[in-house]
Amino acid sequence: MKDNTAKENAVKKAYIRKPLIVGNWKMNKDHLESLNYMQKLFWNLQDKRFDFSKIDLCILPPFTSIRSVQLLVDSDNIPIFYGAQDVSDSLDGPYTGDISAQFLKKLGVTFSLVGHSERRRYHDETVKTIIGKLKMSLQLGITPILCVGSVNADDDSSIDQQIDYALMQVSKALTFLQGFGFENIVIAYEPVSAIGRGTTVDPNDIDIMTASIRNCIEYQASKKAAQNIRILYGGSVDSKNAASILELENVDGLLVGGASLDWEEFSRIALISEKLVSEKFIPEKLISEK
Ligand code: PGA
User: Fold this and answer.
1) Which residues are designated catalytic?
2) How far is the CA of 117 from the centre of ligand 1 (A)?
3) Sign of torsion over alpha carbons 185, 191, 196, 200
4) Residue whose CB lies within 8 A of the most ligand 1 atoms, among 21, 120, 236, 239, for a mutation test
5) What is the pLDDT of residues 127-161, one digit of tens each?
6) pTM (2 d.p.)
7) Which atom of ligand 1 is nearest to the CA of 24?
8) Structural domains of the chain, with CATH
9) What sign has the CA pseudo-torsion 49, 272, 230, 131?
């Protein structure tokens, strides 16, 4: 019964938001490996006639590779975005090891990942720190991808607990980001129980969670914000399950960890996503005409 609901939604789906497929490399690939990967990814997608206007692709390399990726992307006009896996909640000052959003902006970074469960688990990030990171990103014109979901970074909470917690996170973000351009954030539902485990969570749970997040945005912010904000799913995404997740009504993209480390697998995910949306994609401008 539950399965049917997700499938029916999928059939009805039209892509009114441009899908965003993000590769989170985590602590992998030095600057030379990053260059090699980016070239191969781009050449392969070009060869396969990937339509870059249909899907936004973004890679999140480690900080030490961002400058190299920037030089390559700029010199070869590669239409792939890149971003940072974290950002400081301070602009500058005595914060050893932290990276300022203003430095990232100078490196042409488009996206910043904020509040990933691995940051919460290993660096004790609190909701307050996360809000600070969101604000700093938006102030500098970087689009934050806010990760929400599991209650604690190291537990397997139930879907109901996850929804309550995720809505609290979204709600706080919307409240504290008033005046900071909150409608420009991206939200990623990332259940800890699926990260790096090789199996995604039940598509119906993804469906319920992403619909709840969008309802929360509509209720607390506006219908327009709810229509514009992209909601991603992350947790053991690969080329075998990408299509079935991307078909869910409120999923606008994927946050891919392990499977993004291989440029061929990430290309496959990009190509599958493009094929899926190409017939049903409604250009963004139509949103405002509704
Ligand atoms: P995974 O990681 O795809 O390896 O599960 C996802 C993430 O943590 O962003």
Assistant:
1) 116, 190
2) 10
3) negative
4) 236
5) 899 999 999 999 999 999 999 987 665 566 788 88
6) 0.92
7) 9
8) 2-8+21-285 (3.20.20.70)
9) negative
